[in-house]
Amino acid sequence: MDPYCNSDSDRGLREELKVIYRHFHEYPELSFQEEQTRAFIADFLEGLGFQVDKQIAKTGLVAVLKGKETGPSIAWRADMDALPIMEGTGLPYCSSNEGVMHACGHDVHMTCALGAAKIIAEEENFPGSLIMIFQPAEELNAGAKTMIDDGLFERYKIDMIFGLHNQPDTPSGKVAIKAGGLMAAVDRIEISITGKGGHGGVPHRNIDPVVATASVITNLQSIVSRNVDPLDAAVISLGTIHGGTANNIIPDSIEITGTVRTFDPETRNRMESSIRRVVENSASAFGCTGGLDYIYQLPAVTNPPELTKLVYEAAAEIIGENNIVDPTPSTGGEDFSLFQERVPGCFFWLGVGNPDKGAIHPWHSPLFRIDEDSLIIGARVASEIIRRAWKELS
User: CA 196, CA 133: separation in Å to the nearest integer?
Assistant: First the structure.
């Protein structure tokens, strides 16, 4: 007995989704290069009766299906881009584009979205419109912004928006749903420490930015431990340090880049001033000048309680409450949050992990793979969310 396929139609769709997923996985494309991916999606949705718009966000796509009744417009978003990673899974449908791989599971997201679109399209009547948004360049934190800048919300009336992300740490057959912060805000920091370079053998004649940089790096970590509420969460991680040309030359300057992750908006708003204070004062203590460029990239994915309840009830209808997980939030970011700033929206995780099938590796691993039986669950839960959203707004 299959607990997630209640009919021959469900079982047929499950197999169809596996074929679609394998196609996406075999032919991945990088951010803003998703031309073939978009063409495949357009053909599929046009075959279901959707009106397809490919003139948005360079390689984006929006498709609309109108019901017999005039009513609310519910949007479903899926991202399309892959990563510059050489696949190492050895799967029969392994990437055929060398050095490019769907290692974050956006092929899952597209497949579930198309499955939901097909389920809804085959219904005789529904009280509103379904807007399918296929977004490029999520991996660059650029796709959602580009769609918004191209007038997504001016060109289309959207009352609510939903989406999902696969989660390999959650077993296949389950979904993870959480009100409040689910994925972190993402900001970039660029730090410069400037002194006066010279011969390494006579450091007293110079102003050494390397020593000052060491102090800056150490002191930055005190922000989270001493300026952030222990019951809140924040991350400051430095990823690059560049400076110097030879072992016996003290350089004029050092450049550092890093990432900041937060959930609470007030905490996020305080991070820039806290980091600037530490950088400037730590550098000054060594006679150097410290500079900071703080680049706000993405807000946190934050689910409102009322929409979280809708998603929870939809998932319970499809897979039962015992298969719904209350997850620990992720400090990974997601530009779905930019859509949530414009209209009410909710985001959840689809479990795709299964050790028996080798689905144990994290996002962005060259060994990343999923349990394909999760695809039908994602499609059916998504379609039930769409139905309930129409009912809620009607």
Answer: 52
